[in-house]
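Mods, move this if it's the wrong board.
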Amino acid sequence: PANSLYVPTSFRSVLLQYHFINENKSWDQARLYCKDNNHTDLATVSSMADMNRLRQHLGNRNTWIGLYREANGSRMWQWSQPDVKFNESQKDEWYTNEPNDVNTENCGTLWTDKKWADLSCDRKQPFICYDGENVQSLNWTDAQSFCRNRHTDLISGPQQIKKLDWGMMNALVHKSQGGFIFIGLFRDAWQWSDGSSFSFRFWNLQTWEEALYYCRHHHHDLVTITNPEDQIWVQEKTKNASSPFVWTGLRYTCSLGFWFWVSDEVVHYKNWASPGQVNECDMSGAMETGGEHKWFDSSHNEYICVNSK
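Not the wrong board. Structure tokens:
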């Protein structure tokens, strides 16, 4: 947000100290302020302990932290547990021709022959928590939240994976779609402004309604796609998206039984992956950021907002 608090950091011995500055600045201005006023940089959040400290002091206020993404930044593989680092030698753990990044696959799984494969984070698969088991299938983000709330985190790193009970693993494989089991491996293009390598992320995912409000408040509206030219424009805009789908301004009305654009445009042009398959009310339209960029109906909340032109 353009008007918000921001949090610089400084170090006292080995204890991370947060200092709250109640001034409205842009992200770049806030970072310069931190550096010019004897702080280290904008805040780095390295664990849930850091996150809980910030939430305790901030309440419902918005604040800048040091996490940013360059426009053409490359996605880097990381582990969900912030104290486990991904290094070059771990690339030997991938299955042949993996990762192949089909349809924007930013999450890691255990697959054939106990090797790794990338998969869409939106898929619902069994998963493995560190120091705990599970009996359900979730998308990767929900699986991470489940593990952090009930155990430690998603299992992370070759050393933890090699200690798995493979009898339990075989049972999970039989429950999974395609034999994929989520682990704590993910990739994104985000990095910390102070140069630290912490992989900790704690995203506040937007629902469709929140995305609509944000776009109308800060820009114009959620995107409307009325012709092939609009479709191509949106595809270009989503190249740097970190999620497999982006919200559009499509909404389904159960009372009238049809899809409509929130901009009041009629839905003439269509690019559905599976047209007409509406299974519940309050569905919204999302476009995949990879593959053929088809449209999907969804009520999930792991997508991001695309702004209009």
